[in-house]
Amino acid sequence: MSNTNLPKVAWIGLGIMGSPMAENLIKAGYDVTGFTLEQDKLDRLAAAGGTAVKSIADAVKDADVVVTMVPASPQVEAIAYGADGILENAKSGALLVDMSSITPQTSVDLAKAAKDKGVRVLDAPVSGGEAGAVEAVLSIMVGGEQADFDEAKPLLEALGKTIVLCGPHGSGQTVKAANQLIVAVNIQACAEAVVFLEKSGVDLKAALDVLNGGLAGSTVLTRKKDNFLDRDFKPGFRIDLHHKDMGIVTDAARNVGAALPVGAVVAQLVASLRAQGDGGLDHSALLRSVERLSGEQVA
């Protein structure tokens, strides 16, 4: 049952991450009205106790908080701007929490445009993948005003575990870009280790267990160990999206004059994996790229 004292929420974007996140808000007692492009995702929201509607305008018109979770900057701009978009149809004083991973500049521009419409904005991208979304243990990095962050925090606590205001508008996106840099490099290192271990004839499961107990251990290895062992690359986070994120971090780093030599190499490896047709696979499929480079036939 929804709690009438809680803010009314509009949720735009019900993909791999958005669907379980919206459901966690429903479980926490929020009244959630959702819109997305796929009918089956709208049906899923309705089955979970949310209200599915046919347009962004219908979703946001009565909402106190609008949460958006879409793939990239162009989609954020498409849902935010224009006659049918969020800014034209949300009520004055509403809080827009964009949880998509986009360029810091897009977030800064959105906050500025929203201010003219009386809408407050937080950029609040997340890390933790599908599992983190389902378990409500996401790490949420936020950019925006302290007062808006304080207002959004109880809602964000229904979605994640580590929730931090990182600075002004765009800061959440900058920290998310750094997160994606670390994750991609980490997955690549794990993938190289897996191929090295297997070619050496070592028991891979035993090796990964002992590595994960020492300084080489990581959340990436814990989360992705079974993907490596089983060659199971069902997407929790798609290569296509990590390719987009590596573009964001390399571009943002150039703008501020930061050199990312290893990041640049891994960005190219992600791009090549995508070019080989693996863009729809989980980012742990970087293993396939290392296998190909090591002379293996990859099915």
Automatic annotation (TrEMBL):
Protein name per its UniProtKB record: 2-hydroxy-3-oxopropionate reductase
Enzyme Commission number(s) from the entry: 1.1.1.60
GO MF terms held by the record: 2-hydroxy-3-oxopropionate reductase activity
One Pfam family hit: NAD_binding_2
NCBIfam families attached to this UniProt entry: tartro_sem_red (TIGR01505)
Family assignment from sequence similarity: Belongs to the HIBADH-related family.
Record's keyword annotation contains Heme: no
Keywords, in A-Z order: NAD, Oxidoreductase
Organism: Streptomyces kunmingensis
EC primary class: oxidoreductase
Domain called 3-hydroxyisobutyrate dehydrogenase-like NAD-binding: residue spans: 170-288
Residue span(s) of domain 6-phosphogluconate dehydrogenase NADP-binding: 8-167
